[in-house]
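Dear colleagues,

As part of the handover before I leave the project, I'm documenting each prediction I ran so the next person doesn't have to rerun anything. This entry is a single chain, and its sequence is reproduced below.
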Amino acid sequence: MQLDSALLTRLAPWGFDSSQLDAFAARCSQPASSNAVKGTLTPPAKEDVRALPEKGTPEHARLSALGRAALDRNEVGVIILAGGMATRFGGVVKAVVPVIEGRTFLQLKLDDVRKVSATAPVYVMSSFTTHERLEQHVRELGATHTFVFPQFVSVRLTPKGELFKEPSDGDVSPYATGHGDLTFAFRRSGLLANFRAAGGKLLMMSNVDNLGASLDPCVIGAHLDKPGVALSAEVVRKAKGDKGGAPARLDGVPQIIEGFRFPESFDQDSIPVFNTNTFVMDAAAIDRDFALPFYRVEKKVEGATAIQFERLVGELTAFLPSTFLEVPREGAPSRFLPAKDPEELASRLETIRLAVNR
């Protein structure tokens, strides 16, 4: 696909890959059913999912000590996902939206880290729409040991595989290619190499809008307590109407299967928990390229149908030995308090207040 030099120059800082766009164009006519998994799919085995021990129990104290020791050895870093398209809060970058007492999403996440560790490095994944504002906000906060790096970009296509032009101005329509960019973008930035060179071993990743996902030594310890596991994914008990990815076994391999990938014949209610997109990962294990698939997604842009392709960070579980940690969902102990839009933020605000002050 021929793209003009001005567009290529505009997209180059964000890791745009024109050959990748050609591959996307060839897949635009694929049916949605092509996303469904192939193979033998079963609910997770009993040993795949374990519960985070309650605070005050001997097991909680034991695991917390393991995690605290790793933090004290400066082996733990934090990744905050704050990329995307900045559309759900009226075009404002969500990370800089005030939540409690004027403190923004990002400020609350950074304050949480600093309550646990004064020096743990924090890596904020941005996008072409959020990067400049996030860098500015980090400076405004005077945040130390905090680094911002961008995920990748591509441009939307028509269902026929041609360049999609926005109806209002005829311009191309860039988009961020999904949080599955994480390991690729982190490596490209050089920050992963720097972290490992400084003795870093573990990375805790969460969404900027999940203020329940604190840096908890017990969670770090739970990961360390499973030798041979490279990734621990937090899950919570399902409630009525919940949709999204969930742990399952595909051809015997424990991994997260995204909701849209379950075949219609599979009973998703047979899996009682689902993915929260909070992980602990071994830095050495993610320091390589993965064959993460891109999925075809239809979007409405000014009423017109556009096609984009995204990859998902949860699918690292298909490539790395993984385990699933069931964490609290309700009340002050909750580790799952997403606020995807202003309405959800308003409905969760009191619980979020309890969680950030625990």
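Residues 16-28+42-356 form a domain with the Spore Coat Polysaccharide Biosynthesis Protein SpsA; Chain A fold (CATH 3.90.550.10). The chain has one domain: 16-28+42-356.

All the best with the project,
I.
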